[in-house]
Design goal:
Strand order of the largest sheet of chain B: 6-7-8-3-9-10
Bound molecules: adenosine-5'-triphosphate, magnesium ion
Main location (chain A): membrane
Keywords (chain A): Amino-acid transport, Cell membrane, Membrane, Transmembrane, Transmembrane helix, Transport
Pfam family, one (chain A): BPD_transp_2
CATH topology of chain B: Rossmann fold
Number of domains of chain A: 2
Largest sheet of chain A: 2 strands, antiparallel
Largest interface: A-B, 22 and 28 residues
Shape of chain A: globular
Helix content of chain B: 25-40%
Number of strands of chain A: 2
Number of helices of chain A: 17
Oligomer: heterodimer
CATH superfamily of chain B: P-loop containing nucleotide triphosphate hydrolases
Largest sheet of chain B: 6 strands, mixed
Protein name (chain A): Branched-chain amino acid ABC transporter permease
CATH class of chain B: Alpha Beta
InterPro entries (chain A): ABC_transp_permease, BCAA_transport_permease
Chain lengths: ~375, ~250
């Protein structure tokens, strides 16, 4: 029975680690720009899919043993670039408008979900041709000084032109190469990542087993938290990020390029989501909805921890992860078996979705007492 | 905007061309017209003081100069080149050091980090992030508390930090918005002396918004503002009691 509890806590902590990894990126971005990125969950999903792709690419090569490290780097880079595109293309235009940002990023999250369902070489070719035509033309035309004046005209001509040519090219290629070209990469079904051999199995502890994959996730999270902390506190860009987070206008007056800081921070936050995705892929199968499963808990971690507080996020992530796991698995039911009524209550909540209900109820109750989260901002900062 | 007032003469300094030129600036907050056709200029190595009662638009003028507010019309030139299309951080890197009203020290950064951030305005970030001794000679109080949080300093200390921070970027034009507001007399004298020494040793221009007559008299030239327009200007040596009565809250 004790071993069940130990096992539950351990699994809960590893789940909390994933949440923390995801929340870290979200919290940094929210602290800096006040932007709630609803597509953060989909960035996690992209990280997980990147892991899957790297695994497939390195199968049957000597590198397979360490593919997970390659995948971590790849996931970070892919999602960071994606975050950068998202910031430059969408969010930048919506600063100071939280509601629109919420809607726009939600839209992006839906697009991304559909994208992984239907991505094929054909789709990639269409998007690539479109980008080359449209942005290529834009760069060439923008060299002319009066681009602002002819902007409307340019969009009206180039947008349909590029779209039609891209689709035509895609269809021609599709007709030539047939299924190899039009077949979806992943489809709507979930895909599975198999951990490398050294991550299978587990460490025997107190009559139970700590799976190596979960230990790996915990270590990865610790490394990321330490790394982010170090980056923010010991590098020039970290100092700039902290400065802009606290006083954007004055930071600009000092000469800090705030737009670059925004873009960099968003890329960093998105990259962390990619790492979280890598971790998620080790816990179970990966599907287009994977991001949705994590995003709400991740938001909760940010809220409960208190915005902009690393220590708060850590505690909140561990608490929410553990609570979710303990309530959702049967651990507490067994544990409270001697007290029949309590045990019945826990039995009622002991499915994953019901556990979420109970955890939310607890969070709402908690926020009644501490609306600012575990570690609210205090001191002169607030009125400064 | 026409100059109905005969006392409004543009600043003329020898033969040099102005370092800062503000030309017919119109600024709005929403629909309320705050700055109405403001003209002014600051010449190299000169200290210019902008005076006027509360709420006439002095801070608005400086914020527009920094690019925090966008003017609806008008032009601002630094060394003859228009900076109206430049972003705030670009203007800082062009050599405008800004000490805002309310000081705006970054609260959860240490004094040292606040000072280091002043280096951001330099065109190239130096390899060694050191705080030059001149800063501590001007403001000795800062030296003893480099690791304290900016937000934990007293108002007077924050003011000194804000000026020191602006100086770290070696500006060509130092812009000060009411640096003595809410500060005890002895510290006011220290700040005055520091500003005077900065001008003597570095030869930079200063644009100052100020209410204290004593400090205003340190300047070479004054501009007086009323309801968003410049209504008087002249050499501070000829600052008449009339003008003082009308534009300074003494
Ligand atoms: N954010 C704002 N929104 C709307 N109106 C504003 C805003 N800030 C200032 N104002 C108005 O603009 C006018 C000029 O304000 P400004 O801060 O420039 O005055 P000031 O001359 O600096 O006064 P003080 O000596 O009190 O600092 C005031 O009437 C003020 O009410
Ligand atoms: Mg003011």
């Amino acid at each position: 029975m004790l071993s069940g509890l130990v096992d539950g806590i351990f699994s809960g902590i590893s789940l909390g680690s994933v949440l923390l990894l995801a929340a870290l990126g979200l919290a940094i971005v929210f602290g800096l720009m006040g932007v709630i990125n609803m597509a953060h969950g989909e960035l996690i999903m992209l990280g997980a899919y990147t892991t899957f792709l790297v695994q497939n690419a390195l199968k049957n090569t000597p590198l397979f043993g360490i593919y997970i490290f390659v995948a971590l780097i790849a996931a970070f880079i892919v999602t960071a670039i994606f975050g950068l595109i998202l910031e430059r293309g969408v969010i930048r235009h919506l600063y100071g408008r939280p509601l629109e940002t919420l809607l726009a990023t939600w839209g992006v999250s839906l697009i991304l979900q559909q994208f992984v369902r239907s991505v094929s070489w054909q789709l990639v070719a269409i998007v690539a041709v479109f980008c080359v035509l449209f942005f290529g033309a834009m760069t060439i035309v923008a060299r002319r000084t009066d681009f602002e004046r002819i902007r409307g005209w340019f969009l009206a001509v180039m947008l349909p032109l590029s779209a039609v040519s891209a689709i035509a090219v895609g269809n021609v290629l599709g007709a030539t190469y047939k299924l190899a070209f039009t077949k979806e990469w992943f489809g709507a079904r979930n895909v599975d990542v198999t951990a490398p051999r050294w991550l299978r199995g587990g460490l025997p502890v107190a009559g139970t087993q700590f799976s190596y994959a979960r230990i790996f996730i915990i270590v990865l999270t610790i490394a990321c938290v330490v790394g982010v902390y170090w980056f923010l506190n010991n590098t020039p860009w970290g100092l700039r990020i902290r400065s802009v987070t606290q006083n954007r206008t004055m930071s600009a007056c000092l000469g800090i390029p705030t737009k670059k800081v925004d873009a960099l921070t968003f890329a960093l936050g998105s990259g962390l989501a990619g790492l979280a995705g890598c971790a998620v892929s080790l816990l179970g199968s990966v599907g287009p909805n994977t991001g949705q499963n994590y995003i709400v808990d991740t938001f909760m971690v940010v809220v409960v921890g208190g915005v902009g507080k690393l220590a708060g996020s850590i505690l909140a992530a561990l608490a929410i992860g553990t609570a979710n796991y303990l309530i959702g698995s049967n651990t507490l039911v067994d544990l409270t078996a001697p007290i029949q009524p309590l045990s019945d209550v826990f039995a009622f909540f002991s499915t994953i979705s019901m556990a979420k209900v109970l955890v939310f109820a607890l969070i709402i109750a908690f926020l009644q007492f501490r609306p600012g989260g575990l570690f609210p901002q205090k001191g002169r900062t607030v009125d400064a | 905007m026409s100059y109905e007032n005969a006392t409004l003469e543009p600043m003329r300094a020898d033969t040099a061309s102005p370092m800062l030129e503000v030309d017919d600036l119109n600024v709005y907050y929403g629909e309320s017209h705050i700055l109405r056709g403001v003209n002014m200029s600051v010449f190299p190595g000169k200290m210019v003081c902008l005076i006027g009662r509360n709420g006439v638009g002095k801070t608005t003028m400086l914020k527009t100069l920094m690019g925090i507010l966008k003017p609806r019309s008008g032009n601002i030139k630094l060394d003859g080149k228009s900076i109206i299309a430049r972003t705030t951080d670009q203007r800082a890197r062009l050599g405008i050091g800004y000490v805002p009203q309310g000081r705006e020290v970054i609260p959860r950064l240490t004094i040292k980090e606040n000072l280091i951030l002043g280096l951001e305005a330099l065109p190239e970030r130096p390899k060694h992030l050191e705080i030059p001794d001149e800063i501590f000679e001007l403001f000795p109080v800062l030296k003893t508390m480099l690791s304290r949080m900016g937000g934990d300093l007293s108002g007077g200390q924050q003011q000194q930090l804000a000026i020191a921070r602006a100086l770290m970027g070696r500006p060509r034009l130092l812009v000060l918005d009411e640096p003595t507001e809410g500060i005890q007399p002895s510290i006011i004298l220290e700040i005055e002396a520091a500003v005077r020494r900065i001008i003597e040793t570095t030869g930079i221009s200063v644009l100052l918004v100020e209410q204290h007559l004593h400090f205003v008299r340190q300047a070479d030239w004054y501009y007086a503002m009323q309801k968003g327009s410049m209504v008087a200007s002249g050499s501070t040596s000829q600052l008449s009691n009339d003008v003082i009565q009308q534009f300074l809250a003494v």
